[in-house]
Design goal:
The complex is a heterotrimer of chains A (314), B (585) and C (334). By secondary structure, chain A is an all-alpha fold. In chain A, 69% of the residues lie in helices and 0% in strands. The radius of gyration of chain A is 22 Å and the shape is elongated. Classes of the chains: A mainly alpha (314), B alpha+beta (585), C mainly alpha (334). Chains A and C meet through helix 1, helix 5, helix 6, helix 8 and helix 10 of A and helix 1, helix 6, helix 7, helix 9 and helix 11 of C.
Chain lengths: 314, 585, 334
């Protein structure tokens, strides 16, 4: 349910334009505020931990998640007393290794989707809000069309459309398609949001003044309009990443997410939730715990950032 | 459109269904689940048409015909597939076959224990030469709308099915009857895919069907076929009323049957209710007043069963152990062997290493069938050691497959003998899109990887059939075979026969002249018993060639509620025999 | 205002057209790449060309363009648009009218959405208001933490755990205590029942609503905080109005405007949750029907249902925009 576009849309409703000029003081103010909030520090550390897990899985396990022996099926967590600290799943794969290696596709997918969406959103939103006229009409129409088609339907259609295309079995290959689809249906929120922001900013006195003084469109956009928008878009990013991580789990449940043989948290959770009802709760709890922790950390981080970057709520 | 021809267990939830056949993925199931009959019909080669009608007619219902008092209970069952029609001519999945089994009566019905057919609506079925069959129908039977069940009712239904442009699922069953070809017409397809009609169908009726008198139908086949009468109890051969043909789309939703129950209402996608038809005169009628089927479309009805809202169900794999450990639940479990074979095919047309028998042996012996089934599909399958289901059909015998045992050391040796697996390459396993079989084949892939060191990847594809028949596979692939009729020949000839000597047959690229000869010898045998022996020879040739790897046979299972009694599963479809089911008072 | 409305309506129609076109192109492309669903009808059998052509015709996919990759199939598209204009939304692959399917499925989904919306609003308004009032204190942090936790749980996990672990004992207990057809018992029925469509969607709806409520809690909290600091509230306070009056009439009422619009925007989003909820709880609804239609490449059903949905969504969006244009003078439409 926590789709990035919704978070963005929701944020749009509450968006306020801070009237701090330039970037420097805003960011250093924010940094000072954040440093003083212990929960933000903890959240940042947790998020960082999982990024490290995703980047260097070998630090955390020596097992190969793809090496599964059915005769080891369903071993319960052994903690430090055996080769399978988190136990094994029904196919006999080591669960710790799966969870550790599953972090990479989940997080990478989220970073790619949010990164691309923000890029598209900021660009189109700025153009649309600044120039208005036919540019705005075209972009607004596109936003509306994409908003009207439910994300999941689009995901299904597109993912079934391209499923004959082999993207290889590398991590990037296995997440490429969901990443493209989630991006294609994830940029609208940022666009609307930035557009609204730009609409307000460009009527502010100092921007009007810059215009009168003969600054070029590009210069005004980059120097005066964008910093305002980016400040508040930044606050959305951690929450949006958390949203994509959750969405990946939903796609996995529907069988259209990250492609096997890659394992992602979503796939592990979806498999684990089937087994939860038996006596193999650990199969769900370990990956779910990691996902919830990560999401929690990112959202706290996002809230902290928003408070810090939005002086009005301070 | 992953519907295909699936065979699922009507009320019995997901078991055999999900395992082998559901979601149409990769199954060869031809869906003739009703045609479970062994050997020629009772009246088979009975000499003169009129005379001695043996086994069938008089014998009537086997044990279980319900003359006992009728309970006023409503039995609550489940439909697991997306059932989209109740037209007999178009019904070919386990679920609608199961429903229609109590809505319609066929010419013959099958003994649930032996699968032997006996006459039911038919008074007598006789033939001299296995080519011209004379079917006499019992007098005085009517449809639920009052129309008579006569020779015309059968001819009407069969002609409708056989007419190509009607495009019904059971069309191909009628290809053995004279006059089938002219009803198909001819079309031409150019490279751009444009279809042009070059010849409209020249006939609208099967020339091989002749209504001799209102209650006698004479059927002429294109060639002798001793098993013809065994097919006649299948859903596709049910009669239909004239009113049904006049309004086919209405009849598909609210059938006009001739069976003991009539459909009251069908809220498509939600539920289907049926109740007793008072005008029913034949002996086999369920011992309760109503049935309510709830549609689940893939989701498990198990919690509803546990809560007492559903009478028959089966647990999802994750809950299997729990359900079996419960002494109360497991005392209400029925299990019976199924007939579907899951096997691994090789793209023999791709050459190395698939065309090397040592490679295929290595794959086969690297798979720990027993443990995989125990963990992934508990209770739903049994390891296969033959290509024909043992004991289930004439000629079926366990153990014909020499290399179907789990032996990692021998597997490694065989792989070495085959020249090893090309370094750095990944073995693709193609299969249909279906979650349970993906888990199943992941475990099989893991087994191969663990014991042979070959990296694999799964390729679940919704257009499995297209890709297989166009030889689009680059790796090994999952197949299911569900027999059309209970004879060992049906597991062999349609799958491995009829190929081109150079290119091999269409799906597998397999060809062996000796195999073809053995099948031909069977076809030409004077009687069925001798034919079965010849066909068994063909299986031996297959076992030596080892073109495919048998993995498992299906198993039917159902748990039932406390109020049910005498729960018997149909050996072929796995569905509960509703006409035998009893309600405890 | 009148001219603006007319322009918005025209834009809405254009959007609708583009949505239908986009969907048509996507589904057509899918068929061209993946093979005609008519072929799948035959399962493993290789149909004679006659049978194939007949089925393709019956499915409305007889046009040869469906076999040519890259062909936009504009012919069938124009035909379909024409049919839509006459109110004919076509049939599914089995000849059941799309309007009939929607007529059966939509009420169940609407019931589900109603429960979801009520859950969102109740939880969002209550907890959001409390959090805003107790801002910065433990209660505020507690509410935020809890809502994020629930939000992070994938909805299917909650539903599966409820259905397989909690529902059966609860249902059995309620049946024993209150009688097997009592309202309380039906509330906990493990699956949807078409005989009791409203009562059996309540628990699934609440679970689905819970997972989406975090965003609303945050939204309400933020909106109210803004209002607490705004001038009209300060004025109201200085007039000597009671705190209770200020909160109820100025803060809650003013902050409910963005909340109401957000409910509208989230409409399409909720459909994703509906697919899962309907699947797990065996509810015959729009999500499940759409899901199946996409898997079956049922073009007319997909395009038909989404067009109907799009009409609803576009109307909602226009209303939201109008509301904004009327309420927020800061935004200038040029």
């Amino acid at each position: 349910m926590s789709d990035p576009s919704v978070s963005a849309l929701v944020a749009e409703e509450t968006a306020t334009v801070d009237r701090v000029q330039g970037g420097g003081s805003l960011w250093s103010n924010a940094w000072r505020t954040l440093r003083r909030r212990p929960e933000v520090i903890v959240a940042a550390l947790v998020a960082l931990f999982f990024v490290v897990v995703a980047a260097f899985p070998r630090l955390f396990t020596s097992q190969d998640p793809q090496r599964c022996d059915i005769s080891n099926s369903g071993i319960r967590p052994q903690w430090f007393s055996g080769p399978h600290p988190f136990g094994t799943d029904i196919a006999g794969c080591d669960l710790l290794a799966s969870v550790v290696y599953g972090a990479r596709p989940s997080l990478l997918l989220a970073f790619i989707v949010v990164g691309l969406s923000v890029l598209i959103g900021v660009t189109l939103g700025t153009l649309s809000g600044y120039y208005l006229g036919w540019v705005d009409t075209a972009i607004s129409r596109a936003v509306e069309v994409f908003l009207v088609i439910p994300l999941l339907l689009a995901a299904l259609l597109l993912l079934s459309l391209f499923r004959t295309v082999d993207t290889g079995s590398s991590v990037l290959g296995s997440i490429l398609q969901p990443a493209l689809v989630l991006t294609a249906f994830g940029w609208m929120g940022y666009t609307r949001y930035v557009r609204a922001n730009v609409l307000e900013t460009k009527n502010l006195d100092y921007v009007v003044a810059a215009k009168v003084l003969g600054a070029s469109d590009l210069r005004i956009m980059v120097r005066h309009v964008l910093p305002n928008a980016i400040g508040t878009v930044t606050a959305l990013i951690p929450t949006a990443i958390a949203g994509v991580i959750s969405t990946e789990a939903v796609l996995a449940f529907l069988g259209i997410g990250v492609r096997p043989p890659a394992v992602s948290w979503g796939i592990l959770i979806s498999n684990g939730s089937e087994r939860f009802t038996g006596d193999s709760q650990y199969l769900l709890l370990f990956p779910l715990g990691c996902l919830v922790l990560t999401v929690l950390a990112l959202v706290v981080l996002g809230d902290g950032l928003r408070d810090a970057l939005d002086p009005k709520l301070r | 459109m992953t519907r295909h021809v699936r065979l699922t267990v009507t009320a019995v939830a997901t078991v055999a269904a999900l395992t082998l056949t559901a979601c149409g993925s990769g199954s060869d199931d031809s869906g003739t689940s009703g045609t479970s009959a062994a050997g020629p019909a009772g009246s088979g080669q009975s000499g003169a048409g009129s005379g001695a009608a043996p086994a069938g007619s008089g014998a009537g219902a086997p044990a279980g015909g319900n003359d006992a008092e009728v309970s006023d209970a409503v039995v609550k069952l489940v439909l697991n597939q997306d059932v989209d029609t109740l037209l007999p001519m178009d019904s070919n999945v386990g679920d609608n076959i199961g429903v229609l089994d109590v809505i319609y009566d066929g010419l013959v019905r099958y003994d649930p224990k032996t699968s032997k057919p006996y006459n039911y609506v038919a008074q007598d079925i006789a033939t001299k030469d296995n080519k011209v069959w004379t079917i006499k129908i019992k007098d005085g039977l009517t449809f639920q709308n009052g129309e008579p069940v006569d020779a015309a009712a059968f001819a009407r239904s069969w002609n409708y099915s056989a007419y190509g442009p009607n495009a019904v699922a059971n069309n191909y069953f009628f290809e053995r009857i004279d006059g089938y070809e002219p009803m198909q017409g001819e079309y031409e397809e150019d490279d751009a895919g444009k279809v042009t009609v070059t010849k409209e169908p020249t006939a609208k009726e099967l020339s091989g069907l002749k209504i001799v008198d209102p209650l006698t139908l004479e059927v002429t086949l294109t060639a002798p076929f001793a098993g013809f009468s065994t097919m006649l109890g299948y859903t596709g051969f049910f009669p239909v009323a004239k009113a049904c043909i006049d309004d086919v789309s209405g009849c598909a939703v609210k059938p006009i049957g001739n069976g003991p129950f009539q459909v009251d209402q069908w809220d498509q996608g939600q539920k289907l209710t049926a109740s007793r038809w008072d005008g029913y005169t034949l002996p086999e009628s369920p011992a309760f007043t109503g049935i309510e089927w709830t549609e689940y479309a893939g989701k498990s009805s198990w919690p509803d069963f546990q809560a007492g809202d559903i009478d028959v169900s089966a647990p999802p794999p994750a809950l299997w152990a729990q359900a079996n450990a419960d002494p109360d639940l497991s005392s209400r479990k029925v299990e019976s062997p199924g007939a579907a074979l899951t096997y691994i095919g090789f793209p023999l047309y791709k050459g190395k290493p698939y065309d090397n028998i040592e490679f295929r042996k290595a794959i086969s012996m690297a798979i720990d069938r027993k443990t995989i089934i125990e963990k992934i599909l508990p209770g739903q399958a049994v390891p296969a050691t033959s290509w024909v289901v043992p004991d289930g059909v004439p000629g079926g015998k366990a153990g014909t497959c020499e290399w179907c045992r789990f032996d990692p050391a021998a597997a490694k040796a065989a792989l070495a003998k085959a020249g090893g697996w090309p370094a750095g390459q990944t073995l693709t396993i193609h299969l249909g899109k279906d979650e349970t079989s993906e888990q199943y084949f992941k475990a099989i892939g893991d087994s191969i990887k663990l014991n042979l060191g070959i990296d694999y990847k799964l390729d679940p594809t919704p257009d499995f059939f297209d890709r297989r028949s166009s030889r689009g596979f680059t790796g090994i692939f999952r197949n299911n075979w569900f027999p059309d009729y209970p004879l060992n020949e049906n597991y062999l000839a349609p799958v491995y026969g009829g190929g081109d000597a150079k290119k091999g047959n269409k799906n597998l690229g397999f060809y062996d002249a000796k195999f073809e000869q053995a099948i031909k010898a069977g076809d030409a045998a004077p009687n069925l018993d001798e034919a079965v022996v010849k066909y068994a020879d063909a299986e031996k040739i297959l076992a030596a060639d080892f073109p495919t790897v048998p993995v498992s046979f299906s198993q039917n299972v159902a748990f039932y509620s406390e109020r049910l009694d005498n729960v018997v599963l149909d050996p072929f479809s796995g569905s509960v025999e509703l006409r035998l089911l009893k309600i405890k008072q | 205002m009148g001219r603006y409305l007319a322009r918005r309506l025209l834009q809405g129609l254009l959007t609708l057209f583009l949505v239908i076109l986009l969907l048509h192109l996507l589904t057509t492309w899918a068929i061209q790449l993946n093979g005609n669903p008519a072929l799948a009808f035959f399962g493993d059998r290789v149909p004679s060309p006659a049978q194939y052509a007949a089925v393709a015709e019956r499915f409305g996919l007889g046009d040869p363009c469906y076999a040519q990759v890259g062909n936009p199939c504009l012919g069938p598209f124009v035909t379909r648009l024409g049919d839509y204009l006459t109110g004919d939304f076509g049939t599914d692959l089995r000849g059941r009218p799309v309007t009939d399917i929607v007529g059966t499925a939509a009420p169940n989904t609407l019931r589900l959405f109603a429960v979801v919306t009520i859950t969102w609003l109740l939880i969002g308004m209550t907890l959001g208001s409390v959090a805003a009032r107790k801002r910065g204190r433990l209660t505020d942090h507690g509410i935020r933490g809890l809502s994020i936790m629930i939000d992070a749980l994938p909805v299917f996990v909650m539903l599966l755990v409820y259905r397989y672990v909690l529902a059966v004992p609860l249902y059995t207990w309620a049946k024993d205590t209150f009688g097997s057809n009592s309202t309380v018992a039906l509330l906990f029925k493990p699956s949807f029942s078409s005989d009791h469509p409203m009562i059996t969607v309540i628990v699934p709806g609440i679970l689905l609503g819970l997972t989406g409520s975090a965003a609303f809690i945050r939204l309400v909290r933020a909106a109210q905080l803004e209002n607490y600091n705004s001038e009209h509230v300060r004025t109201a306070r200085s007039k000597g109005l009671t705190e209770r009056h200020v909160v109820l009439f100025h803060i809650v009422r003013n902050s409910s405007i963005p909340v109401a619009t957000a409910v509208g925007i989230v409409f399409t989003e909720a459909l994703a949750g509906a697919v899962i909820t309907e699947g797990v709880m065996n509810i015959y609804g729009m999500g499940g029907v759409l899901w199946k239609a996409v898997r079956d490449s049922d073009v007319s059903l997909v395009v038909g249902i989404v067009s109907l949905l799009a009409i609803v969504t576009i109307v909602v969006m226009i209303l939201v925009d109008l509301l904004y244009a009327a309420l927020d003078p800061r935004i200038r439409y040029e």
